[in-house]
Amino acid sequence: ERPKPLAGRRIIVTSGPTHEPIDPVRYIANRSSGKQGHAIAAALAKLGADVRLVSGPVTIADPACVITTHVETAAEMKGAVESLLPADAAVFVAAVADWRTANAAGEKIKKVAGEGPPSLQMIENPDILAGVGHNRQRPGLVVGFAAETQDLISNAEAKLKKKGADFIVANDVSHESGIGPSGVMGGDRNKVRIVSKAGVEEWPEMGKDEVATRLAALIAE
Ligand code: C5P
């Protein structure tokens, strides 16, 4: 049997959304099923990598042959990722909430007649990818994702620099390609472009498992 190309390599993968609490029963989140991130973790493990998956709240099962850490918030995800450094590569697939509430209430916020809705004060979450991309323990290969509804390529190119990534996997989540069981978010298929310093490579639409297999092969290369 041929040796597996990623044997002995530690790779961190983030997947799923984060949940940012408003109070004990309510939260703010991004749309993400975790399907693409979990598929990438599994595909890297198949190539022999020692994969450490950090997953936000999802309803799908932990991938086989991968050590999974479960987190809720962006702050917890950042802590979990940093505790797994150093690593040979890191792939940031999670749809991290950009903002969290400044002060999550300790008790359920009550609806009081005549008082109207509460206003939420939001503060920025740390950018986990950018933190790792510019870390002194930066892995040799750092891959980010970009889901955009507009200006996909220019946004991905800007993210490459700002976040210190080697590749950005860009997907268009506008209109019909977007949300729900047949869309990119929640569905089983994906259409991505690989944006790097070398340029933009457009992949045809394919299943998320196939995107994962091809991306794992690219990472191994
Ligand atoms: O800036 P934007 O959220 O579009 O960037 C997406 C990329 O950055 C993804 O790879 C995502 O996992 C990562 N990210 C992160 N921490 C954040 C926001 C995004 O790691 N707070």
UniProtKB/TrEMBL annotation:
<feature type="region of interest" description="Phosphopantothenate--cysteine ligase">
    <location>
        <begin position="11"/>
        <end position="221"/>
    </location>
</feature>
<feature type="binding site">
    <location>
        <position position="145"/>
    </location>
    <ligand>
        <name>CTP</name>
    </ligand>
</feature>
<comment type="similarity">
    <text>In the C-terminal section; belongs to the PPC synthetase family.</text>
</comment>
<comment type="function">
    <text>Catalyzes two sequential steps in the biosynthesis of coenzyme A. In the first step cysteine is conjugated to 4'-phosphopantothenate to form 4-phosphopantothenoylcysteine. In the second step the latter compound is decarboxylated to form 4'-phosphopantotheine.</text>
</comment>
<feature type="binding site">
    <location>
        <position position="98"/>
    </location>
    <ligand>
        <name>CTP</name>
    </ligand>
</feature>
<feature type="domain" description="DNA/pantothenate metabolism flavoprotein C-terminal">
    <location>
        <begin position="6"/>
        <end position="221"/>
    </location>
</feature>
<feature type="binding site">
    <location>
        <position position="108"/>
    </location>
    <ligand>
        <name>CTP</name>
    </ligand>
</feature>
<feature type="binding site">
    <location>
        <position position="159"/>
    </location>
    <ligand>
        <name>CTP</name>
    </ligand>
</feature>
<feature type="binding site">
    <location>
        <begin position="126"/>
        <end position="129"/>
    </location>
    <ligand>
        <name>CTP</name>
    </ligand>
</feature>
<comment type="similarity">
    <text>In the N-terminal section; belongs to the HFCD (homo-oligomeric flavin containing Cys decarboxylase) superfamily.</text>
</comment>
<feature type="binding site">
    <location>
        <position position="163"/>
    </location>
    <ligand>
        <name>CTP</name>
    </ligand>
</feature>
<protein>
    <recommendedName>
        <fullName>Coenzyme A biosynthesis bifunctional protein CoaBC</fullName>
    </recommendedName>
</protein>
<comment type="function">
    <text>Catalyzes two steps in the biosynthesis of coenzyme A. In the first step cysteine is conjugated to 4'-phosphopantothenate to form 4-phosphopantothenoylcysteine, in the latter compound is decarboxylated to form 4'-phosphopantotheine.</text>
</comment>
